[in-house]
Amino acid sequence: MKLVITVVGVDRVGIIAGVSNVLADNNVNILSINQTIMDGFFNMIMMCETPEDAKNTLDVVQGALNELGEKLGVEIRVQHADIFLSMHRI
């Protein structure tokens, strides 16, 4: 299953490391990552993939990243890639 993860908030040390650690702990592979910092605001989007046999990974990762987002003061969203792409298709 592919996941799209977005992170938005005020830039600070440890955002990428924190997100990457949560993903690694949950056996989620990062396929691509794009991040920018504009006027002190951090913006990142990641395409990730979980093993096909993984169960409840989306819920577990969402919960862990929501908790991390609160700790870091950023908004982290995790969506199934098919839903993300459907929402952004014209």
Automatic annotation (TrEMBL):
<dbReference type="InterPro" id="IPR002912">
    <property type="entry name" value="ACT_dom"/>
</dbReference>
<dbReference type="InterPro" id="IPR050990">
    <property type="entry name" value="UPF0237/GcvR_regulator"/>
</dbReference>
<comment type="similarity">
    <text>Belongs to the UPF0237 family.</text>
</comment>
<dbReference type="InterPro" id="IPR022986">
    <property type="entry name" value="UPF0237_ACT"/>
</dbReference>
<feature type="domain" description="ACT">
    <location>
        <begin position="4"/>
        <end position="79"/>
    </location>
</feature>
<dbReference type="InterPro" id="IPR045865">
    <property type="entry name" value="ACT-like_dom_sf"/>
</dbReference>
<dbReference type="Pfam" id="PF13740">
    <property type="entry name" value="ACT_6"/>
</dbReference>
<protein>
    <recommendedName>
        <fullName>UPF0237 protein RVY80_08605</fullName>
    </recommendedName>
</protein>
